[in-house]
Amino acid sequence: MGDRPMLGVVLVGENPASLAYIRMKEKRAREVGMSFGLYRFPATIDQSTLEREVRDLSQNEKIHGIIVQAPLPSHIDRYAVTECIDPVKDVDGFTRTQIGNMFLGHDGLWSCTPKGIMTLLSHYDIEVKGRDVVVIGRSNIVGKPMTLMLVNAGATVTSANSQTKNLAEITQKANIIIVAAGSP
User: Which of 89, 90, 92, 98 is catalytic?
Assistant: First the structure.
């Protein structure tokens, strides 16, 4: 039957929130029958060494999916590290290739939270095509991909954020509001 799929998670430093997220990811991976590998690096690791380590993990045939756990230390360029992941192993959907697939409406590995929201909307038969949707939040993790997915699904989307004027007025006109701002 072959090897079980393996999720590799890269952790840099000891951020308590990251450790909690990783425990949840490991639990879910094991629940669905996946292997799980945690690859820990000190917060003092330099950019080029981390990139090399992520490239090596990406080339490992036993690892089928990779996540680089955020946040990373301030001296690390997260986007450069992400680009070291083979796009077919980019579980978070953060490589340029996967973002391009999403932008163009092609199949790919897309950002998990927005994809989950789209799945929930579909599950509850909430039509987005032709609807006015406001997405509050502009992060690269949720807000921007959410906006793209909704546009691709035929919604008329307003992207709002903490700088948006007249937010109450804008949201009152919406059929659907998705809040991804990180605060109530």
Answer: 92
- 62 catalytic, yes or no? no
Q: Residue 53 is which amino acid?
A: E
Catalytic residue among 69, 90, 98, 144: 69
Please give the domain boundaries of the chain with CATH numbers for all domains.
6-99 (3.40.50.10860), 111-179 (3.40.50.720)
Per-residue pLDDT of 126-175, as tens digits, reads 999 999 999 999 998 899 999 999 999 999 999 999 899 999 999 999 99
Q: Is 163 a catalytic residue?
A: no
CB 25 within 8 A of CB 67: yes
Annotated catalytic residue, options 25, 89, 98, 144: 25
User: pLDDT of 68-124, one tens digit each?
Assistant: 999 999 999 999 999 999 999 999 999 999 999 989 988 888 888 999 999 999 999
> Among this protein's residues, is 46 annotated catalytic?
no
pTM for this entry:
0.84
Cα–Cα distances in Å, from 55 out to 49, 83, 168?
10, 9, 46
Task: Report how far residue 61's alpha carbon sits from residue 65's, in angstroms, rounded to the nearest whole number.
Answer: 10
